[in-house]
Design a protein that fits this description.
5-stranded mixed barrel, 125 residues, alpha+beta, 1 helix, 3-stranded antiparallel β-sheet
Length: 125
C-alpha cells in the first residue's frame, strides 16, 4: 500500500512539473552586438547609429539614455535592433582609445606599432 501511495504521489508531482513548463510568451528581439559609430545632436543625445557594414540609421529609441559631447561622434560597442523607423539601442559600452606603443608579431618577427590603426610596422628585431 505504501508503495502504491508513493507511486501516485510521484506521478502527480511529475504531472505538475510537466504542466508548469508552458510556452513562454516573452518576445526576444533580434538584436545585433557589434562595434558601431554613434553621432550626437546639439543636445548630446544619440541621434544616428552607423554600423561598419551598412547605412546610417536614425535612432528611434535609446533605452540607455546615453549622452556624449554635443555634435560629436564616438566608437562604441552596442546591442541594437534594426526596425523600420530606425535603430532601437538596448545597451552601449564606450571605449577609451589611447595611443600606446604596441608590440606585435609581424611576419614572424617582433614589431613595434605606434598605434592600433597603423597598418605597417617598424621592425625592431
Amino acid at each position: 500500500m505504501k508503495r502504491r501511495k508513493l507511486h501516485v504521489i510521484w506521478l502527480w508531482g511529475l504531472l505538475f512539473l510537466m504542466t508548469a513548463c508552458g510556452d513562454d510568451d516573452y518576445y526576444y528581439p533580434s538584436v545585433k552586438l557589434e562595434f558601431v559609430t554613434v553621432e550626437a545632436g546639439e543636445d548630446g543625445r544619440i541621434q544616428t547609429l552607423i554600423p561598419d557594414k551598412g547605412e546610417a540609421l536614425p535612432v528611434a529609441e535609446d533605452r540607455t539614455g546615453s549622452t556624449i559631447a554635443a555634435n560629436t561622434s564616438r566608437r562604441v560597442m552596442s546591442n541594437y535592433e534594426t526596425m523600420e523607423e530606425g535603430a532601437k539601442i538596448y545597451s552601449m559600452k564606450c571605449f577609451r582609445m589611447e595611443v600606446r606603443l604596441l608590440y606585435i608579431l609581424c611576419n614572424r618577427s617582433l614589431c613595434r606599432c605606434l598605434s592600433r590603426k597603423m597598418i605597417r610596422c617598424i621592425k625592431t628585431v
